[in-house]
Each structure stands twice: as C-alpha cells, then as structure tokens.
Amino acid sequence: MKMIDHLTRTHRELTDGTRKTVVLRRHYDAEVEDVWQACTDADRLSRWFLPISGDLRLGGKYQLEGNAGGEILRCEPPSLLKVSWLFGPDPGFSEVEVRLAAKDGGTLFELTHTAEPPEEFWAQYGPGAVGVGWDLALLGLGLHLSGGEKVEEATFHLTDEGRAYITGSAASWGEAYRAAGAPDDVAAAMVAALTAFYAPEEGS
C-alpha cells in the first residue's frame, strides 16, 4: 500500500466548541488483539510511535519521550484505552481515547482527542494542530502492522512521498474544518500554516 493510500483511508471529523474534539477513524487489516498490543505494549509502541515509560496500567502515569504524558483513565482490553494527554507547562484539559472493534476481517480503529487549546493557537493551526500529528501516527501504525519500516518524522517531509502525505493531511483537515463551519479563508490559512510547520522547505 502506498503511503498516500493510508491517508485516504482515514475519515476525519471535528466538533468545534469550547472544547475541541477531533476524530480519526480507519480500518486496519489486522486482528483486534494485534492492534491492541501495538497500541499498549511499550516495546511495540517504540517501534512505530515513541518510546514510553511509566506505570502502564489503569490509574498509572505514563510519559512519551519528548511528547505528552498523563494518566491512564480507562483500560478495557482489547477495545478501549483512554488517557489524559498533557504537554507543556500549562496544558489545560486534554484527553485521548482509542476504540477498537472487529470489522470486515480486520479492525476498525477510532481515535478521539478532546482538548481546550489556547485561542491564539487554535486561531493559527485549528484542528490540524493535533490532526496532522495523528495522521502521521496512524500511518506509522499501519506500516508497523503490515511489517513496514518506521517513518522518521524529522526527515519525512524532505521525501516526495512524505511531503505529499503531509500536505494531503493538512488539506484534509482544512476540509474537516470547513465541514464544521469554518469560513473558507480561515480554513485555507490554517492549511498554509500547517504545511509550513510540518513540511518546511529544506533550509528554511
């Protein structure tokens, strides 16, 4: 499967209120138990996402290397995982929930991220602020489940395929933003800001 096919397999939604909720949903050609282990086993997480440390059980605290940390709020193998998702000195409310269900010989994967981002941050990057990052994560999971190599995010945007994936992700979040009621000019400005952030030109 080409990387861009991973992008088009994902459905994206946005609920825009005081709390912003982004939803990503796609099908993986893997058993639910395999997808669950890939999302919850520390060794496997490091192979497609990020190294993780902490007390990885219900009520325990976790920390992703160089990224978010928080508490494991719900853990119902192999179908539901919910965590607080805190990053930075003043993160505010932020939770991520992953639901898995057997479907069509594989797994329906749904990720919901609900947060209260700073207004100025949302004004610039909108739902793509987390959406593009989650698109990259879902790509990594898909490659991992199919035996592929891990995406190196630091250099991914310098490849033709990587740049096409990132710009396609930004455009898809622009469409989701419009569907949630954002004016065309606001959505277009967000797409431009996302592309510049996630896929800067070499040397910039």
UniProtKB/TrEMBL annotation:
<protein>
    <submittedName>
        <fullName>Uncharacterized protein YndB with AHSA1/START domain</fullName>
    </submittedName>
</protein>
<dbReference type="Pfam" id="PF08327">
    <property type="entry name" value="AHSA1"/>
</dbReference>
<comment type="similarity">
    <text>Belongs to the AHA1 family.</text>
</comment>
<dbReference type="InterPro" id="IPR023393">
    <property type="entry name" value="START-like_dom_sf"/>
</dbReference>
<dbReference type="InterPro" id="IPR013538">
    <property type="entry name" value="ASHA1/2-like_C"/>
</dbReference>
<feature type="domain" description="Activator of Hsp90 ATPase homologue 1/2-like C-terminal">
    <location>
        <begin position="29"/>
        <end position="138"/>
    </location>
</feature>
